[in-house]
Write a structure and sequence with these properties.
It is found in: Secreted. The chain is an all-alpha fold and 212 residues long. It has helices at 2-24, 27-53, 58-63, 81-85, 89-101, 104-114, 122-150, 152-155, 172-204.
Length: 212
């Protein structure tokens, strides 16, 4: 029992040290890191979508659900850059965190489905999905730290229930279509997250809005 207590104390001290270290990092630097991570996330999701584009048959595109059916569509987000620039820093960070958190379970489903995806680049796609999960988790951890530095409003998160499952279809066309749809939804949201964080980074660096 004493040994377990000692391990618990060490973990607690380690967490305190990490928090203290992050608290010493200027917000500008934290936003730079978050923006770089979100850019990587969006670039990777775009590459994955392109990998799938040429393998979805015409009937698959006809079956593809509309973007409005993405599980995050209920979240009210800016429609363009002008609207984005009108939002406060806290609102921008809250939106980014809400979108990112909403993808925790769907990314698990994508990873599970990728293992049996009927696609010539299945192994590569599976590896990239795992990279998405890793980058998403690291970005989420960073945004949690940022929200703690920016106050209660930035810590607010909107709940966006995901009612999907890891069964994306038994035949090749259904698999590719459903997988592509879910990945396309993530790519759209990763672009929003990246845009919000870039605006935050520009404001922190006091860069003119038109340069963001």
């Amino acid at each position: 029992m004493a040994h377990r207590g000692t391990n618990g104390s060490k973990i607690f001290i380690t967490v305190l040290c990490i928090v203290a270290a992050c608290s010493a990092v200027p917000i500008n630097d934290l936003l730079d890191r978050a923006s770089q991570r979100s850019d990587t996330l969006h670039s990777l999701s775009t590459t994955l979508t392109q990998d799938l584009n040429n393998h979805v048959p015409p009937i698959g595109w006809m079956m593809m659900p509309r973007p409005s059916l993405c599980h995050t569509s209920s979240l009210q987000t800016p429609n363009d850059k002008e609207q984005t620039l009108q939002l406060s820093e806290s609102d921008l960070l809250s939106l980014a965190r809400s979108l990112l958190q909403a993808w925790q379970d769907p990314l698990v489903d994508l990873s599970t489905s990728a293992n049996s995806l009927l696609h010539p680049s299945q192994t590569s796609i599976s590896n990239k999905i795992r990279e998405l999960q890793e980058h998403s988790k690291n970005l989420g951890d960073g945004l949690d730290i940022l929200s703690g530095r920016m106050g209660p409003a930035a810590q607010a998160i909107s709940s966006l229930p995901y009612r999907g499952g890891n069964d994306i279809g038994g035949d090749r066309i259904s698999q590719l279509t459903n997988f592509h749809f879910l990945l396309s939804c993530f790519r759209r949201d990763s672009h929003k997250i990246d845009s919000f964080l870039k605006v935050l980074r520009c404001r922190a660096a006091k860069v003119q809005p038109e340069m963001c």
